[in-house]
Amino acid sequence: MSRTVLLWGLWALLTGLGASAVFAALYINGDRSVLLPGQTAGAHHQLEIACETCHTAEPFASQAKVQKKLNKTCVTCHKDELKAGDDSHPKKKFTNPRMAAYWEEVDGRFCTTCHAEHVPEQTQPMMVTLQGDFCVSCHSKGDQDVRKNRESHAGLGFDTCASAGCHNYHDNRALYEDFLVKHSGKDWLAAHPVVEAAALPTAAKPVDQQEIATYLAAIEAPAADDAINHDWAGSAHAVANVTCNSCHAAEDTAWTDHPDQGVCADCHKSAAKSFSLGRHGMRGHSKISKPRDVEKRLKKLGLPDAPEFLVSAIETYLADPSQPEVMTVQEARVDLKAEAHGEGMTCNSCHLPHREEPDHSAVTACLTCHNDDHSLSYLDSPHHNLWQAELTGNAVPGSGVTCATCHMPQSEKKGLAVTNHNQNDNLRPNEKMIRSVCLTCHSLEFAIDALADPALVSSNFSGQPTRHIESIDWALKRVEPSEQGANQ
Amino acid sequence: MTSYAKKIKAAVLCGAMAVGGTSASAEMEYQDVADLLHLVMSSDRTVYTRMIVNRLAVKEKVITASEHFEDDKALVLPAQMFRFGAEMVAEETDAFSYSLLSLWPINKQNAPSTDLEKEGLEYLADNPGENFYGEEELGGTTYFTAFYPDISVAEACSSCHNEHKDSPRTDFEGGDVMGGVVIRIPMDG
């Protein structure tokens, strides 16, 4: 056999093996990360290796079916927030055939029209992959021409609709015209700025050191470490008879020094659920797909009774990589501190295991990792001063403003404060924060102006807004016509 | 087939359409299906407008009706009630769709958007008491499209439209044609 034939044979063999590996990874099992067409946007990188979370269509399905199924998965996770945000452009507004002409412009029936994935080079803020003036497609013609419907909008560019603090495509709860009018003309700061839910009584716990000492003297100290005994005895866990074994040997299992999050979630169900909806905890979201089942995949490829050796060989050599259970700091794509690398996001990342320490959970823990200007400026901000005053007893409960006050707002349920553990729930666009947070203490006008001032956001609101958004003024003009007749 | 029996059959077919998502049977005229669907829609809408909104918000003044009904803790406006129903139907089936449109819409989204819509709404305005039927192709599908006059059935209708800051027309009176209900049934397959 000549050398040429041998080399051709080797080439064919290697090519065949390579093609088989790619085919197997795509359709059966195996690491597909090298096949990723482009980085995903936002926090979706956390589920990048679990392709089936979004790509639910069968292999070789029609393009229409792929698009339909893909878009269905968006609302699997984002349905509740769209509903809560009273979505201004819901899919159901676009499915009526009378909207067919608009499908040619911006097809509002599909999330992916504006939020294409795997195209980092064209992904804008809010994960939008259209040009920033996309509103022009529908709101610039005929009866829909906003420049004709609103005198104030005559000279405005369509790139300013969603970028100037006036409109959002989805959530306009704090920006719609009548709301602007209703909340106009108020002082920038309320007379008694207090977050009522934060002032609610918390779960019962010992009131002072004396009570803790008396309690510890009366029982057999549960742990060898005095500091841990003391911390635990001062917590609501001790009052509720949640002992060492309740967490470290839950349900008669063997003792573990480091209980996992499931132990916390057994009791703190609502916190665990909202945690899994945000970036910190979304690795625990129930809808992230699991590694593919080899036998099921082979069956779909027409091999219903694949020999066991084939199944076990694939499982051994071509297994889907498992999704990490928690998000880690080094994986994050926001500015985080290098010294925090290696940390995984669990309950204990923010909560001390044996002691309740609001300053730790609501401020210190955040600043352990977050390294952006807004976070770093917090300690010098007026909001932090208020928190210090509350902590030292110089201000009433609920008057302090921590990171969590704004990013994990509390609400009242059955007389107790419930904390939203999805810290992204009201984050983007930042006007989502107006109703859930800002308006508690500030006027709508101030909140809109402040949130639209990037420098003020960076300085963690140390000062007054340097720009004014005219939306309230314009809205007022339409209901209180001037002598020139502003009402159209 | 007597007219009565035909209506019964149509009603059964309508039910089947809503549940099964099939398109209108060839045995039944598209116009009959649309007329019956409209009868249900307009009756429900009139009942809500007269017995809920007009009675409680206009006559007895015990509650208001507002576009921002959640924020204002108010009644849903009759037009919204109708539209929410249409959106719910759209989520269940594409065997038919319907909308409430006008040549004088408060919300500009409800202005005519197709040539037939413009023609139909103008016909309704010019010929009070009459319906209008036509066919049109939208997004590659041919539709049977029926137009029914939307009439001011209570004081609340005309007064609210006359007073609203976004209303392009402010001289509506009771009994006026204010717009039209448009029902579409796909004719292909």
UniProtKB/TrEMBL annotation, chain A:
Cellular compartments annotated: Cell envelope
Name listed for the protein in its UniProt record: Doubled CXXCH motif (Paired_CXXCH_1)
Classification via InterPro entries: Multihaem_cyt_sf, Multiheme_Cytochr_ET, Tetrahaem_cytochrome
Keywords annotated in UniProt: Electron transport, Heme, Iron, Metal-binding, Signal, Transport
Organism whose genome encodes this protein: Pelagimonas phthalicica
GO CC annotations, alphabetized: cell envelope
Gene Ontology MF, one: metal ion binding
Endoplasmic reticulum listed as a keyword: no
Keyword flag Transmembrane helix: no
Main location: other
Pfam families: Cytochrom_c3_2
Cofactor(s) this protein requires: heme c
UniProtKB/TrEMBL annotation, chain B:
Stretches assigned to the Tll0287-like domain: 25-186
InterPro entries, A to Z: Tll0287-like_dom
Listed Pfam families: Tll0287-like (PF11845)
Signal peptide start-end: 1-26
Source taxon at top rank: Bacteria
Record's keyword terms, sorted: Signal
Record's protein name: Tll0287-like domain-containing protein
Organism: Pelagimonas phthalicica
